[in-house]
Amino acid sequence: MHIEDVIIWYNYFGLLFEDNLSNYPTRLFGYKTGELSEPAIMQIDNVGACFGYVYSGQLSVQDSLVNWNVQKEQWFHVPTGCNLKIYPLTTVVICQRLYYQGIHLMGGPIEKTGRLRYIDGCTDSLLCCPPLKGDPCLNLLHFPSHTKQTPHTHPSIRAGIIARGNGLCCTKGDTIELEEGMVFMIAANSVHHFQTHEHSMDVIAYHPDSDWGPTHEEHPMINRTWVSGHKILS
């Protein structure tokens, strides 16, 4: 299956993209309700963990254990599928990592910049960390104004939403203008980079995999458990 280097959605409601053939199968959903007379009720099947971010408005996220009210600039993560009650004037993006069992987490509002250094003066924060090394994660990526990134690739897809500001996404064959509320997908191994001009830009980025995270041999609980004054060796 050929996937375009970068796909952008301006207006959306429902399933936008599905990848069942890679090692990290993913579904991408986007919902933009507009001025509805009453909330929209949607269901995401119980086939994998959901990572969501609310760009505007609010929604209720419900499964067999939780019933959360998630508001603007907040994120959430549920173990499998969920039921959504999406209120009028709400925009939300949800990435579902198929066949992966997640955990219950929510947080936000997101901060103005990231906590970690990234390439070319950018910063990022892990919003939802991988519980185990190799698991998927959700990130905030901050581009200061007047940024021109080094062209680069990722070994798996990237998907999410432009949370704040604006900029450009440049590929070998195209330059795409990015604005708040746009949902995006970047194909695996596609050469790309981002640019900003007068304004900064913040992106919520889902990764379907990772090469970092705790292991059974290395994690804070066991690392800081000492016997006779010495760390326990695995």
UniProtKB/TrEMBL annotation:
Q: Which Gene3D superfamilies match?
A: Jelly Rolls
Q: Which domain of life is it from?
A: Bacteria
Ranges where the Cupin type-2 domain occurs: 141-198
Cited InterPro entries = Cupin_2, RmlC-like_jellyroll, RmlC_Cupin_sf
- Kindly give the Pfam families that the UniProt entry links to this protein: Cupin_2 (PF07883)
The molecule here is called: Cupin domain-containing protein
